[in-house]
Every structure is written in structure tokens, then in C-alpha cells.
Design goal:
This protein is of the alpha/beta class and 248 residues long. The protein has two domains: 154 residues, 3-Layer(aba) Sandwich (Alpha/beta knot), CATH 3.40.1280; 60 residues, Helicase, Ruva Protein, domain 3 (Orthogonal Bundle). Helix 1 links the parallel strand 1 and strand 2. The radius of gyration is 20 Å and the shape is globular.
Length: 248
């Protein structure tokens, strides 16, 4: 008997094939996972999707649609971007076998998201940075990319093999990713106003700030303190004209 994966959400970003969405639904049903979230998808109720979903057609009808990834993960406590590509802006990539252990930091009512990208190009670096973690599946260098449904079923299998602990080690309520994005928005506004960010590549710094906050596991009190500091800084800077040109 497989453990419950009811706390897991599957997020597909701009899936391009109705058949792939249907196969993902079947994979979810195989492991008792029921929360499907689609970001700007193709026709997910297409006949081809229903054909490949087989007995999991109900998941197609119950899928929730979102305009962007930020909205899709806003209520989640933790989320894992699945990606084959590494890079400085993508941070440390966990191996797929390391992902289930993240559930130890999930509070009792917390939700855990697995995020999958487009069939032809995956997730952008910006989308990866919206997630609390990133993970990969080691594959052959000859043909590294997996079919979307194959990737989903491998991650669900790993999650089912190492179920969520019955008692969480989390000592304080965890913030939702939507709460954190509000804080990151304040920080980016201040750093832009003070000319700390490179206007052509603000994500280079903001990604590191996001990862720092996720590693810290901010409590609600930490979050309130930082929001208050940012609000006061924003107020103090309201009449500041910015750095002088040519000043040292």
C-alpha cells in the first residue's frame, strides 16, 4: 500500500501536448496524487488528453489553471523545480533521491509542489528561482531529457518510497511562497532605488537573496520584522534622488 501523497501538488508550466497532460494525470492517479495545477496550458480537456489519462480523467476536470508560476506556487510551503540544466542562477541542484527528505521540514498542513517545465525548453532560470529548491535526474549525456510524464512518475515514485514523516521537525509555522514573494518584491524595489542592482540583470542578486531566505527557513516573526524594515527603508527613500552621476 503506497503512502498518501495528498500533500503534493504537480505543477506543469505551459505544457504543449494534451497527450502529455493526460499521461501525467495517469501517473498521478497511480500514486494517489490529486492536485494538478496548469500554468498557461494547451487544451487540457482535448480528446487526446482524455485518451491518455485513461481512468484518471477526473483529474483533468479538476485541474486548476494559473496565468504564471508565481501564482501557482503562492500557497505552497516548499516547491521543487525540476530541471536538467545547471548554472549559477539555478543554484544547487539536488539529485532526485534527495527530494523526499525535504518533507521533514514541512509543517502538518503544508503543501509540497513539484514543478515541471515545457516539453521543448523546460523551465527558465527566473521560474527556477521562484521555487524553494531545484532538482535533477541524472541521465545519459547522449539523450538527457525525459518525457514529461516519465519525469513526473519518477519523482512521485521517489516521494512514495520515502513518505512524509508523521511528525514534522519544523519548529515554527512556515511561510507560504506567496508571503516570501511579497518580501522579495519589497527588497528588489529598495535595491533598485539605491542602485545596488544591475538594471540589466537584477535576477543575478535577487536569485541569491531568494535562496538565502529559503535556506534560513524564516518564521512568521522573522518575516514580519524584515517586512517592517523594508517598509521603513522605502519610506525613508521616498524623496531620495538616487546616486549622483560620477560620484565616488
Amino acid at each position: 500500500m503506497i503512502p498518501s501523497l495528498a500533500h503534493i501538488s504537480i505543477i506543469l508550466v505551459e505544457p504543449q501536448s494534451p497527450g502529455n497532460i493526460g499521461m501525467v494525470c495517469r501517473a498521478m492517479a497511480n500514486f494517489g496524487c490529486e492536485d494538478l495545477r496548469l500554468v498557461n496550458p494547451c487544451q487540457h480537456l482535448h480528446a487526446e488528453a482524455r485518451k491518455f489519462a485513461v481512468a484518471a480523467n477526473h483529474l483533468l476536470g479538476e485541474a486548476r489553471l494559473f496565468p504564471n508560476l508565481a501564482a501557482a506556487v503562492s500557497d505552497l510551503t516548499l516547491s521543487v523545480a525540476t530541471t536538467r540544466r545547471s548554472g549559477r542562477l539555478r543554484g544547487e541542484l539536488l539529485d532526485i533521491t534527495e527530494v523526499p527528505a525535504l518533507q521533514e521540514n514541512l509543517p502538518p498542513q503544508g503543501r509540497f509542489g513539484l514543478v515541471f517545465g515545457r516539453e521543448d525548453s523546460g523551465l527558465t532560470s527566473e521560474e527556477v528561482s521562484l521555487c524553494s529548491h531545484a532538482a535533477t535526474i541524472e541521465t545519459s549525456a547522449t539523450l538527457g531529457s525525459l518525457n514529461l510524464a516519465q519525469a513526473v512518475i519518477l519523482f512521485l515514485y521517489e516521494m512514495a518510497r520515502t513518505p512524509k514523516p508523521t511528525s514534522s521537525t519544523a519548529t515554527s509555522p512556515h511561510l507560504s511562497q506567496g508571503d516570501l514573494e511579497e518580501l522579495f518584491g519589497q527588497i528588489e524595489t529598495i535595491l533598485t532605488r539605491t542602485a545596488f542592482l544591475n538594471p540589466s540583470r537584477p535576477e543575478a542578486v535577487m536569485h541569491r537573496i531568494r535562496q538565502l531566505a529559503h535556506r534560513a527557513g524564516l518564521s512568521e516573526d522573522d518575516h514580519a520584522l524584515l517586512r517592517g524594515i523594508c517598509s521603513q527603508l522605502s519610506w525613508s527613500l521616498r524623496d531620495w534622488r538616487g546616486r549622483k552621476r560620477g560620484s565616488n
